[in-house]
Design a protein that fits this description.
There is one protein chain. This protein is of the alpha+beta class and 393 residues long. The chain has two domains: 148 residues, 2,3-Dihydroxybiphenyl 1,2-Dioxygenase, domain 1 (Roll), CATH 3.10.180; 213 residues, Roll (2,3-Dihydroxybiphenyl 1,2-Dioxygenase, domain 1). The protein contains 13 helices and 18 strands. The two termini are 35 Å apart. 44% of the residues are buried.
Length: 393
Protein backbone atom coordinates (compact mmCIF):
# COMPACT_ATOMS: atom_id res chain seq x y z
CA UNK A 1 0.00 0.00 0.00
CA UNK A 2 1.34 3.44 -0.86
CA UNK A 3 -0.05 6.92 -0.89
CA UNK A 4 1.12 10.23 -2.31
CA UNK A 5 0.07 12.73 0.29
CA UNK A 6 1.45 16.13 -0.53
CA UNK A 7 -0.35 19.09 0.97
CA UNK A 8 -2.34 17.12 3.53
CA UNK A 9 -0.93 18.93 6.55
CA UNK A 10 -1.85 22.46 7.56
CA UNK A 11 0.64 24.96 6.14
CA UNK A 12 3.40 26.02 8.51
CA UNK A 13 5.64 29.06 8.44
CA UNK A 14 8.80 28.16 6.55
CA UNK A 15 12.12 28.41 8.40
CA UNK A 16 13.93 29.84 5.40
CA UNK A 17 15.97 26.68 4.82
CA UNK A 18 18.15 27.02 1.71
CA UNK A 19 19.33 23.42 1.67
CA UNK A 20 21.88 21.02 3.09
CA UNK A 21 25.23 22.44 4.14
CA UNK A 22 26.90 19.20 5.30
CA UNK A 23 26.62 16.26 7.65
CA UNK A 24 28.96 15.24 10.45
CA UNK A 25 30.09 11.61 10.54
CA UNK A 26 31.88 10.22 13.61
CA UNK A 27 34.39 7.38 13.12
CA UNK A 28 36.98 5.46 15.09
CA UNK A 29 39.32 5.04 12.12
CA UNK A 30 39.76 8.29 10.21
CA UNK A 31 42.41 6.93 7.83
CA UNK A 32 40.04 4.16 6.72
CA UNK A 33 37.38 6.80 6.08
CA UNK A 34 39.87 8.88 4.10
CA UNK A 35 40.59 5.94 1.81
CA UNK A 36 36.87 5.32 1.30
CA UNK A 37 36.00 8.89 0.31
CA UNK A 38 39.12 9.76 -1.69
CA UNK A 39 40.15 6.48 -3.31
CA UNK A 40 36.73 4.85 -3.68
CA UNK A 41 34.15 7.64 -4.13
CA UNK A 42 36.58 10.17 -5.64
CA UNK A 43 35.63 12.89 -3.16
CA UNK A 44 38.25 15.57 -2.50
CA UNK A 45 39.73 16.45 0.87
CA UNK A 46 39.00 20.18 1.01
CA UNK A 47 39.46 21.20 4.66
CA UNK A 48 40.65 19.96 8.03
CA UNK A 49 40.47 21.13 11.61
CA UNK A 50 43.33 23.42 12.55
CA UNK A 51 45.85 22.33 15.17
CA UNK A 52 44.28 24.81 17.57
CA UNK A 53 40.76 23.48 17.00
CA UNK A 54 41.92 19.86 17.29
CA UNK A 55 43.65 20.65 20.58
CA UNK A 56 40.68 22.58 21.94
CA UNK A 57 38.01 20.07 20.86
CA UNK A 58 39.97 16.86 21.42
CA UNK A 59 39.02 15.56 17.99
CA UNK A 60 40.36 15.63 14.45
CA UNK A 61 38.07 16.52 11.56
CA UNK A 62 38.44 16.30 7.79
CA UNK A 63 35.98 17.59 5.21
CA UNK A 64 35.38 15.74 1.93
CA UNK A 65 33.48 17.29 -0.95
CA UNK A 66 31.98 16.31 -4.29
CA UNK A 67 29.56 18.62 -6.09
CA UNK A 68 27.37 20.16 -3.40
CA UNK A 69 27.88 17.21 -1.03
CA UNK A 70 30.12 17.77 1.97
CA UNK A 71 30.79 15.31 4.76
CA UNK A 72 32.81 16.24 7.84
CA UNK A 73 34.48 13.09 9.20
CA UNK A 74 35.66 13.29 12.81
CA UNK A 75 37.61 10.95 15.08
CA UNK A 76 38.44 11.54 18.76
CA UNK A 77 41.99 12.23 19.89
CA UNK A 78 40.92 12.59 23.54
CA UNK A 79 38.31 10.72 25.52
CA UNK A 80 36.68 13.93 26.79
CA UNK A 81 35.75 14.99 23.24
CA UNK A 82 32.25 15.08 21.83
CA UNK A 83 33.20 12.43 19.27
CA UNK A 84 34.48 10.10 21.99
CA UNK A 85 31.26 10.50 23.97
CA UNK A 86 29.26 9.67 20.85
CA UNK A 87 31.34 6.53 20.21
CA UNK A 88 30.88 5.34 23.80
CA UNK A 89 27.15 5.21 23.09
CA UNK A 90 27.11 4.22 19.39
CA UNK A 91 29.19 2.72 16.60
CA UNK A 92 30.38 5.07 13.85
CA UNK A 93 27.53 7.15 12.48
CA UNK A 94 26.02 10.55 11.80
CA UNK A 95 26.05 12.91 14.78
CA UNK A 96 24.48 15.93 13.14
CA UNK A 97 22.87 17.25 9.97
CA UNK A 98 23.58 20.88 9.05
CA UNK A 99 21.21 23.10 7.07
CA UNK A 100 21.75 26.57 5.69
CA UNK A 101 19.09 29.19 6.35
CA UNK A 102 18.50 32.64 4.89
CA UNK A 103 18.13 34.41 8.25
CA UNK A 104 19.32 32.75 11.45
CA UNK A 105 17.45 35.16 13.72
CA UNK A 106 14.18 34.44 11.94
CA UNK A 107 14.77 30.67 12.06
CA UNK A 108 15.53 30.88 15.79
CA UNK A 109 12.40 32.93 16.48
CA UNK A 110 10.14 30.51 14.63
CA UNK A 111 11.74 27.44 16.20
CA UNK A 112 11.47 28.85 19.71
CA UNK A 113 7.81 29.70 19.10
CA UNK A 114 7.35 26.02 18.26
CA UNK A 115 9.16 24.91 21.43
CA UNK A 116 12.35 23.66 19.77
CA UNK A 117 15.12 22.88 22.27
CA UNK A 118 18.18 24.99 21.49
CA UNK A 119 21.30 23.34 22.85
CA UNK A 120 23.02 26.69 23.48
CA UNK A 121 22.81 30.34 22.54
CA UNK A 122 23.55 31.17 18.89
CA UNK A 123 27.27 31.48 18.14
CA UNK A 124 28.81 34.03 15.77
CA UNK A 125 32.25 34.20 14.14
CA UNK A 126 33.86 36.82 11.89
CA UNK A 127 36.87 36.01 9.72
CA UNK A 128 38.39 39.50 9.59
CA UNK A 129 37.66 39.74 5.87
CA UNK A 130 34.03 40.77 6.16
CA UNK A 131 32.80 37.18 6.36
CA UNK A 132 30.41 36.04 9.07
CA UNK A 133 29.34 32.56 10.19
CA UNK A 134 26.47 32.13 12.65
CA UNK A 135 24.85 28.94 13.94
CA UNK A 136 22.86 27.20 16.63
CA UNK A 137 22.06 23.56 17.36
CA UNK A 138 18.76 21.97 18.35
CA UNK A 139 17.93 18.61 19.90
CA UNK A 140 15.91 16.08 17.88
CA UNK A 141 13.90 12.90 18.57
CA UNK A 142 16.92 11.06 17.08
CA UNK A 143 18.56 11.08 20.51
CA UNK A 144 22.27 11.83 20.10
CA UNK A 145 21.76 13.29 16.61
CA UNK A 146 21.26 17.04 16.53
CA UNK A 147 20.42 19.49 13.75
CA UNK A 148 22.51 22.59 13.11
CA UNK A 149 21.26 25.71 11.35
CA UNK A 150 23.82 28.11 9.92
CA UNK A 151 23.84 31.46 8.16
CA UNK A 152 26.83 32.33 5.99
CA UNK A 153 27.62 35.88 4.89
CA UNK A 154 30.69 35.96 2.63
CA UNK A 155 32.28 33.25 4.82
CA UNK A 156 34.39 31.09 2.51
CA UNK A 157 35.85 28.47 4.88
CA UNK A 158 34.00 25.30 5.75
CA UNK A 159 33.51 26.46 9.35
CA UNK A 160 35.40 28.45 11.99
CA UNK A 161 38.60 26.70 13.06
CA UNK A 162 38.94 24.79 9.76
CA UNK A 163 41.76 25.30 7.29
CA UNK A 164 41.49 24.79 3.55
CA UNK A 165 43.59 21.96 2.15
CA UNK A 166 45.80 23.07 -0.72
CA UNK A 167 44.44 21.92 -4.07
CA UNK A 168 46.69 19.22 -5.54
CA UNK A 169 45.43 19.94 -9.04
CA UNK A 170 44.19 16.40 -9.58
CA UNK A 171 40.70 15.99 -11.07
CA UNK A 172 38.05 14.77 -8.67
CA UNK A 173 34.35 13.87 -8.57
CA UNK A 174 34.61 11.92 -11.81
CA UNK A 175 31.27 10.33 -10.94
CA UNK A 176 29.53 13.70 -10.98
CA UNK A 177 28.02 13.53 -7.50
CA UNK A 178 25.63 16.49 -7.37
CA UNK A 179 23.43 16.81 -4.29
CA UNK A 180 22.08 15.10 -1.20
CA UNK A 181 18.74 13.80 -2.43
CA UNK A 182 17.41 12.80 1.00
CA UNK A 183 18.32 11.39 4.39
CA UNK A 184 16.58 8.37 5.94
CA UNK A 185 16.34 7.47 9.63
CA UNK A 186 15.16 4.34 11.46
CA UNK A 187 13.17 4.16 14.70
CA UNK A 188 11.29 1.59 16.72
CA UNK A 189 8.50 4.18 16.65
CA UNK A 190 8.78 7.04 14.17
CA UNK A 191 5.73 9.16 14.99
CA UNK A 192 7.45 11.36 17.59
CA UNK A 193 9.85 12.31 14.78
CA UNK A 194 7.00 12.85 12.31
CA UNK A 195 5.21 15.13 14.76
CA UNK A 196 8.45 17.01 15.48
CA UNK A 197 9.27 17.50 11.79
CA UNK A 198 5.72 18.76 11.23
CA UNK A 199 5.14 20.87 14.33
CA UNK A 200 8.65 22.16 15.01
CA UNK A 201 10.36 22.29 11.60
CA UNK A 202 7.13 22.99 9.71
CA UNK A 203 7.60 20.18 7.21
CA UNK A 204 4.77 18.49 5.32
CA UNK A 205 4.13 14.88 4.46
CA UNK A 206 5.43 14.04 0.98
CA UNK A 207 5.04 10.25 0.64
CA UNK A 208 4.25 7.19 2.70
CA UNK A 209 4.22 3.44 2.30
CA UNK A 210 3.77 0.27 4.30
CA UNK A 211 4.24 -3.37 3.30
CA UNK A 212 5.29 -6.82 4.41
CA UNK A 213 7.88 -9.01 2.73
CA UNK A 214 6.61 -11.86 0.61
CA UNK A 215 7.42 -14.28 3.43
CA UNK A 216 4.86 -12.65 5.72
CA UNK A 217 2.29 -12.35 2.98
CA UNK A 218 2.64 -16.06 2.28
CA UNK A 219 2.37 -17.65 5.72
CA UNK A 220 2.99 -15.03 8.43
CA UNK A 221 5.44 -17.20 10.34
CA UNK A 222 8.56 -15.35 9.23
CA UNK A 223 9.65 -12.20 7.39
CA UNK A 224 8.81 -8.68 8.50
CA UNK A 225 7.34 -5.37 7.49
CA UNK A 226 7.95 -1.65 7.34
CA UNK A 227 6.16 1.67 7.57
CA UNK A 228 7.76 4.76 6.07
CA UNK A 229 6.78 8.42 5.97
CA UNK A 230 8.76 11.03 4.05
CA UNK A 231 8.54 14.63 5.26
CA UNK A 232 9.76 17.62 3.27
CA UNK A 233 10.40 21.33 3.39
CA UNK A 234 8.51 22.53 0.33
CA UNK A 235 10.56 25.67 -0.24
CA UNK A 236 14.02 24.09 -0.20
CA UNK A 237 13.06 20.57 -1.26
CA UNK A 238 14.90 19.03 1.72
CA UNK A 239 13.43 15.57 2.35
CA UNK A 240 13.70 13.42 5.48
CA UNK A 241 12.46 9.83 5.30
CA UNK A 242 11.51 7.92 8.45
CA UNK A 243 11.05 4.16 8.93
CA UNK A 244 9.65 1.92 11.66
CA UNK A 245 9.02 -1.85 11.79
CA UNK A 246 5.59 -3.28 11.02
CA UNK A 247 4.16 -6.24 12.92
CA UNK A 248 4.17 -9.22 12.99
CA UNK A 249 7.73 -10.35 13.75
CA UNK A 250 8.73 -6.87 14.87
CA UNK A 251 12.11 -8.10 16.08
CA UNK A 252 12.94 -9.70 12.72
CA UNK A 253 12.71 -6.39 10.88
CA UNK A 254 15.90 -4.92 9.46
CA UNK A 255 14.67 -1.60 10.86
CA UNK A 256 14.72 -3.09 14.35
CA UNK A 257 18.15 -4.57 13.70
CA UNK A 258 19.50 -1.17 12.65
CA UNK A 259 18.22 0.44 15.86
CA UNK A 260 19.79 -2.33 17.96
CA UNK A 261 23.09 -2.24 16.05
CA UNK A 262 23.19 1.55 16.21
CA UNK A 263 22.27 1.40 19.90
CA UNK A 264 19.35 3.74 19.31
CA UNK A 265 17.53 5.47 16.44
CA UNK A 266 19.71 7.17 13.88
CA UNK A 267 20.35 8.13 10.27
CA UNK A 268 20.33 4.89 8.28
CA UNK A 269 21.43 6.22 4.91
CA UNK A 270 21.95 9.30 2.77
CA UNK A 271 21.13 9.34 -0.94
CA UNK A 272 23.53 11.04 -3.37
CA UNK A 273 22.47 12.04 -6.87
CA UNK A 274 24.49 11.42 -10.03
CA UNK A 275 23.74 12.34 -13.67
CA UNK A 276 24.52 8.84 -15.04
CA UNK A 277 24.29 5.89 -12.71
CA UNK A 278 25.48 3.07 -15.01
CA UNK A 279 29.08 4.25 -15.53
CA UNK A 280 29.23 5.35 -11.89
CA UNK A 281 28.29 1.92 -10.51
CA UNK A 282 30.41 0.12 -13.07
CA UNK A 283 33.52 2.01 -11.93
CA UNK A 284 32.67 1.85 -8.22
CA UNK A 285 32.41 -1.94 -8.44
CA UNK A 286 35.80 -2.05 -10.12
CA UNK A 287 37.12 -0.03 -7.16
CA UNK A 288 35.85 -2.65 -4.74
CA UNK A 289 32.64 -1.00 -3.52
CA UNK A 290 30.04 -3.59 -2.48
CA UNK A 291 26.33 -3.15 -3.13
CA UNK A 292 23.24 -4.92 -1.89
CA UNK A 293 22.29 -7.88 -4.06
CA UNK A 294 19.13 -7.80 -6.16
CA UNK A 295 17.78 -11.21 -7.25
CA UNK A 296 17.42 -12.10 -10.92
CA UNK A 297 13.66 -12.40 -10.46
CA UNK A 298 13.49 -8.62 -10.12
CA UNK A 299 14.81 -8.20 -13.67
CA UNK A 300 12.79 -11.06 -15.15
CA UNK A 301 9.67 -9.29 -13.90
CA UNK A 302 10.87 -5.83 -14.94
CA UNK A 303 9.34 -5.68 -18.47
CA UNK A 304 5.85 -6.42 -17.16
CA UNK A 305 6.36 -4.10 -14.22
CA UNK A 306 7.45 -1.21 -16.44
CA UNK A 307 4.29 -1.69 -18.48
CA UNK A 308 2.23 -1.69 -15.30
CA UNK A 309 3.70 1.59 -14.06
CA UNK A 310 3.65 3.06 -17.59
CA UNK A 311 7.36 3.54 -18.18
CA UNK A 312 7.90 3.45 -21.96
CA UNK A 313 10.89 5.79 -22.27
CA UNK A 314 13.63 3.98 -20.34
CA UNK A 315 16.88 5.09 -22.01
CA UNK A 316 19.19 2.73 -20.17
CA UNK A 317 19.86 -0.80 -21.37
CA UNK A 318 17.91 -3.24 -19.13
CA UNK A 319 20.72 -5.77 -19.50
CA UNK A 320 23.17 -3.24 -18.06
CA UNK A 321 20.80 -2.51 -15.18
CA UNK A 322 20.61 -6.23 -14.44
CA UNK A 323 24.37 -6.70 -14.73
CA UNK A 324 25.00 -3.92 -12.23
CA UNK A 325 21.89 -4.74 -10.13
CA UNK A 326 20.45 -1.23 -10.45
CA UNK A 327 16.79 -0.74 -9.54
CA UNK A 328 14.25 1.21 -11.59
CA UNK A 329 10.91 2.70 -10.50
CA UNK A 330 8.57 5.60 -11.19
CA UNK A 331 5.46 6.06 -13.29
CA UNK A 332 3.97 7.71 -16.38
CA UNK A 333 7.28 8.01 -18.23
CA UNK A 334 9.07 9.58 -15.27
CA UNK A 335 11.49 7.24 -13.61
CA UNK A 336 14.39 6.91 -11.21
CA UNK A 337 17.36 4.55 -11.00
CA UNK A 338 18.94 3.67 -7.66
CA UNK A 339 21.24 1.29 -5.86
CA UNK A 340 22.28 0.83 -2.24
CA UNK A 341 25.77 0.25 -0.91
CA UNK A 342 26.29 -2.32 1.82
CA UNK A 343 26.46 -0.80 5.28
CA UNK A 344 29.89 -0.01 6.64
CA UNK A 345 29.77 -2.75 9.31
CA UNK A 346 29.45 -5.48 6.66
CA UNK A 347 31.68 -3.67 4.15
CA UNK A 348 34.57 -3.63 6.63
CA UNK A 349 33.50 -6.74 8.56
CA UNK A 350 33.62 -4.55 11.67
CA UNK A 351 30.48 -3.89 13.71
CA UNK A 352 32.07 -0.71 15.12
CA UNK A 353 32.03 0.71 11.58
CA UNK A 354 28.27 1.03 12.05
CA UNK A 355 25.10 0.17 10.08
CA UNK A 356 25.06 3.39 8.00
CA UNK A 357 25.21 3.18 4.19
CA UNK A 358 24.85 5.31 1.06
CA UNK A 359 22.32 5.22 -1.74
CA UNK A 360 23.17 6.41 -5.25
CA UNK A 361 20.32 7.70 -7.36
CA UNK A 362 19.72 9.04 -10.85
CA UNK A 363 16.44 10.85 -11.37
CA UNK A 364 14.79 11.01 -14.78
CA UNK A 365 11.75 13.09 -13.91
CA UNK A 366 10.44 11.04 -10.99
CA UNK A 367 10.80 12.72 -7.57
CA UNK A 368 9.28 9.91 -5.52
CA UNK A 369 10.88 7.14 -3.49
CA UNK A 370 10.06 4.09 -5.57
CA UNK A 371 7.57 1.77 -3.89
CA UNK A 372 8.87 -1.29 -5.73
CA UNK A 373 12.48 -0.33 -5.05
CA UNK A 374 11.71 0.33 -1.41
CA UNK A 375 10.46 -3.22 -1.10
CA UNK A 376 13.48 -4.53 -3.02
CA UNK A 377 15.85 -2.69 -0.66
CA UNK A 378 14.04 -3.99 2.41
CA UNK A 379 14.04 -7.58 1.21
CA UNK A 380 17.68 -7.38 0.02
CA UNK A 381 18.85 -6.23 3.44
CA UNK A 382 16.74 -8.91 5.10
CA UNK A 383 18.22 -11.64 2.87
CA UNK A 384 21.74 -10.48 3.65
CA UNK A 385 21.05 -10.47 7.38
CA UNK A 386 19.67 -14.00 7.18
CA UNK A 387 22.76 -15.15 5.29
CA UNK A 388 25.05 -13.62 7.90
CA UNK A 389 23.09 -15.25 10.71
CA UNK A 390 23.15 -18.64 8.99
CA UNK A 391 26.91 -18.40 8.42
CA UNK A 392 27.46 -17.59 12.08
CA UNK A 393 25.46 -20.61 13.31
Amino acid sequence: MRRESQGTVMAKKNLGIIGYDSFHYIVENIERAHTFYVDKLDFKLVARSSAALTQESGQESRVYSAGNVRVCVTAPVRQDSRAARYLRRHPSGIMNMTYRVQDLDFAQKVLEERHATLLDDPVEFEDGKGGRYRYFDIATPLGDVFFRFIERTDFKDFAPGFEDVEDDGKPSNRFGFMEIDHATSNFLTMHPMIAWLRDVLGMKQFWDVEFHTQDVQGKRDEGSGLKSIVMWDEESGVKFANNEPLRPHFDQSQITKFVYDNMGPGVQHIALTVPEIIPTIDELKKRGIDFLHTPGAYYRAMPDRLKEIKITNLKEDPKELERLEILVDGGNDRYMLQIFLRDFASYYDDERAGPFFYEIIQRAGDEGFGYGNFRALFESIEREQKAVTKAAD
